[in-house]
């Protein structure tokens, strides 16, 4: 198996596990988003910490010491805020709407990279952003027709996309900083902030088990797969592969929970995914072998 094919399979596997978020969230609809994300953050942090200990042994503390403080804080904050709002959006709007709107993250990342990293951004990216925002408007208006909370969820998903874009650009700016320490700090940070500032809602054993499994299989495991796959797959291909989440996430929710999104989500989602595909598709085909 070539390294390129291995990378595609790893990134594809990460996207597959990431796309299970809606299924897990719909299993615990009675849990408020802050409590849900606090326990998910704790589970993710513990899982990644165990992974790092198994991988690096006693040298694990060195990875935390060598990390740039600003990179750790920025990544942890973007991760904490973005993942918390993602859960909130999922509980307000349909999974399809949130997935499609959150998929605009790569386009926002292109703008942030131009402003912060002075990276060149082509005209087609800005055209794609305008088209994607039109798609977001169609999705949001469709959710508004379904319910006012649906509109709120779709709009929150825009902030989620911005947070994920900020996280991506921060990691690109500090490319020599390992992702695991920042996400571990972010996961523990989410739990502590909710515990001390907001408070944790009482939760039964079944719900806690579902959220714990979510932290392991929907977040920690795909993060490990994605980081491994990033070694072999060009950034453009990674973006295109990860777009499958916008299709798989609502598909699993439909098959497991029977949730059907508003009709406008299909039109808006197609516009968003098409805009991102056009903006990120390479000028020359990238060989897999």
From TrEMBL:
Pfam families: EamA (PF00892)
Domain EamA residues, every copy: 6-140
Membrane-spanning residues: 7-28, 34-55, 67-89, 95-116, 123-142, 148-170, 182-201, 207-226, 238-257, 263-281
The organism's place on the tree of life at top rank: Bacteria
Keyword Metal-binding: no
Record's GO cellular component terms: membrane
Presence of the UniProt keyword Membrane in the record: yes
Keywords, alphabetical: Membrane, Transmembrane, Transmembrane helix
PANTHER family: ACYL-MALONYL CONDENSING ENZYME-RELATED, BLR4310 PROTEIN
UniProt name for this protein: EamA domain-containing membrane protein RarD
Organism of this sequence: Dongia mobilis
